[in-house]
Write a structure and sequence with these properties.
Double-stranded beta-helix; 9 helices; single chain
């Protein structure tokens, strides 16, 4: 099935279980192709929440960065990363360094920050022989599918992210905040409603409360917008969870999520969230040269386990402030 309602320059393929796709004819000048179709591609994303462009033939970081820049209104520098990335150039990153055999469950990028990407862009330079798809799920649909009692609690209380920074697991303080200077880190935390406590060993622990449901800044649609399941302890593989608790203690996990009032989120709730996501997930295996554009507020994304080499570049673009998304809880450090 095809749709040309969004724009005359692109022909979108719609198929059940897969993200919207369009085929590009590689001209050898991907940035020029993207520039000519910028408005049409953005219209497709506005209508459908995401689009996978196949046939563009992206080959390296420089070309990919040029395409990202043509499509975005502005590329962002990542702050508060949960896992390290390699920076190729300003605003162009590797995918998060995460064990290939462990899934990165559905989430909205940087949904715990006060300013987050409105647009995510992914480019596949090397596709793994097995797995590794960047799957997507429509967040208003997920919200409607969740039990009303649960979503109403999260709307009232928000969600709490706790982090314990160390140099072994996840992003370090320097990788997350862009500096090792304690004063600069503390100023950032105060400016962004993050409570913090330095540990005797030099580590840092933080807590921040955010809204779990927001309204899309353009359409006003209510979206399930958070990383509650992905960064929760019960999403970890049991052996990983057991190891981390043994090494760091239950209160010292690299990251964890709670209800906004501080109550623990049970394993049953996390399993429910992930099962609803899975029921509403669409996926398409990467092919080398592919480009994917995702509305980060409307559409959650994941990274599935994989085997073999995989190189996917990422850009965060078109910054959106939480204040412009009708948050349901007051932003406070707790």
């Amino acid at each position: 099935m095809s749709s040309t309602s969004t724009a005359s320059l692109v022909d979108v393929e719609l198929e059940s279980g897969k993200p919207p796709r369009l085929r590009a004819e590689a001209t050898g000048d991907a940035p020029a192709w993207a520039a000519e179709r910028r408005d049409a591609l953005r219209a497709v994303v506005a209508e459908h929440g995401s689009v996978l462009v196949r046939g563009l033939g992206l080959r390296d970081a420089a070309e990919t960065g040029a395409v990202f820049s043509k499509l975005a209104t502005g590329l962002m520098t990542e702050r508060e990363a949960f896992a390290p990335r390699e920076a190729y150039s300003d605003g162009v990153y590797s995918s998060s360094k995460w064990p290939p055999n462990q899934p990165m469950c559905m989430h909205h990028e940087l949904s715990y920050t006060l300013e987050f990407p409105g647009l995510m862009m992914f480019a596949c330079l090397s596709a793994p022989p097995e797995g590794g798809a960047t799957a997507v799920a429509d967040s208003p649909t997920v919200l409607d599918a969740l039990p009303t009692e649960l979503t109403e609690r999260f709307e009232r209380e928000g969600w709490l992210l706790t982090r314990s920074y160390n140099d072994e697991i996840g992003a370090s303080v320097a990788e997350a905040f862009g500096t090792e200077d304690r004063g600069a880190v503390e100023r950032y935390c105060r400016a962004n409603a993050i409570s913090f406590e330095w540990q005797p060993d030099g580590g840092l622990r933080t807590r921040q409360r955010r809204s779990a449901v927001v309204r899309h800044p353009v359409t006003g649609r209510r979206c399930w917008f958070n990383q509650i399941a992905f960064l929760n302890e019960w999403t970890m593989a049991p052996e990983v969870h057991e190891y981390l608790v043994d090494v760091y203690g239950a209160d010292g996990l690299p990251f964890n999520t709670r209800f906004g009032n501080g109550d623990p989120i049970g394993e049953d709730v996390v399993q429910l969230l992930n099962s609803v996501y899975e029921a509403n997930t669409v996926r398409e295996p990467w092919q080398a040269g592919d480009l994917m554009i995702v509305d980060n507020v409307r559409t959650a994304h994941s990274r599935e386990p994989f085997e073999g080499p995989r190189e996917v570049l990422v850009a965060m673009a078109d910054p959106v402030r939480l204040d412009d998304c009708s948050p349901t809880v007051e932003v406070t450090a707790r």
